[in-house]
Design a protein that fits this description.
mainly alpha, 5 helices
Length: 134
């Protein structure tokens, strides 16, 4: 694994940890306020609360909590870092393609198509970089 692959995976994991903390705030709020949907189910997140009035209040309050705790700023920074790591990973992966035409096609695809972008990233992550001269 090379540095671009490592940095991408670390950035992605960091964002996932922060987003999980945000979800935990949602779950805690729901539990502390004993929120239950009309069918008796416990909502898995504030956006899944079926009573619009309660949902709005819960979403506003949990958003405030996330912002005030500084978590939102951390999430935004983590997203920025992940985007940068993603760009560097793609640049590296496309840079080692020996065929100019294929490189050009993939470069266009990763900029215009999210699915193609994710497939290219997954392929680059699977690449055994020990076999590649950088």
């Amino acid at each position: 694994m090379n540095k671009y692959q490592k940095l991408y995976l670390i950035a992605k994991a960091n964002l996932e940890v922060l987003e999980e903390k945000e979800k935990e705030i949602d779950r805690q709020y729901i539990a502390e306020h004993n929120i239950v949907n009309p069918d008796g189910s416990i909502p898995r997140a504030t956006w899944a609360i079926r009573d619009d009035e309660i949902a709005e209040k819960a979403i506003d309050e949990t958003a405030r909590m996330v912002v005030e705790s500084g978590l939102w700023d951390q999430i935004l920074e983590a997203r920025k870092i992940l985007k940068e790591a993603e760009e560097n990973l793609i640049e590296y992966g496309l840079g080692i393609i020996p065929y100019q035409e294929e490189r050009k096609i993939l470069d266009k695809a990763v900029k215009e198509n999210y699915t193609a972008r994710m497939k290219v990233i997954n392929l680059i992550l699977k690449l055994d970089t020990r076999t590649v001269k950088a």
